[in-house]
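The protein record passed on for reference:
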Amino acid sequence: MRAVAVLAAVGSVLGLACGASGDVFTWQIKASIHDAPRDGVGDSFNASPFEGLLRQTSTQEDRAVLEYDVSVIPTGATITSATLAGRVFVNNAFDNGLRTFDFSLYQGNGVADLSDFEIASTVVGSGSYAPPTQTSFTFSFDVAAQVQSLISGGAAWIGVKCDPTSEPNFPNILGDDETTLTIEWTGGATCDPDLTTGAIPGQPGFGVPNGVLNND
């Protein structure tokens, strides 16, 4: 019986290890959404190459969104770490003073929608820089709690929204390839211990002859 207890404990540890996964997710959907006249509702998409445009003036605003396919993460997974990291670049180095931005996460759907401009989202951090002296800034935020909430709620896509918060603030570009979502999780797939193979090829695993448990 003691052998059974020891083996069960080892199997549990192995199951956890097999269920540990991680990935650096890159965007599948990107868009910049234009609001003019400003009423807080997205009116149109900015055309290429301005899918990352960020701007805010008294008459217009542009917010950038990226969506990441996270369907590989099972709904019941436990998020052990998650980091949103990236860069914002100046487009034209006008001296607007300090330019500030909020970054937020939302449940995406794998489609760029005009309503993503005003979609409910959770702010996870902020960043700033001051062109023309500075030409870009990097950001990195711990988003484990927010990702856990989204995954537990059944999200297969996670959206990232960048919102200019100072005025005037123009123009800027959210770096798409530079903006990644790195997530590590446990849960989902597990592996059962192999009782017939040990560390030495051809020998039984866990000291169990022929991989068969008995009451000895």
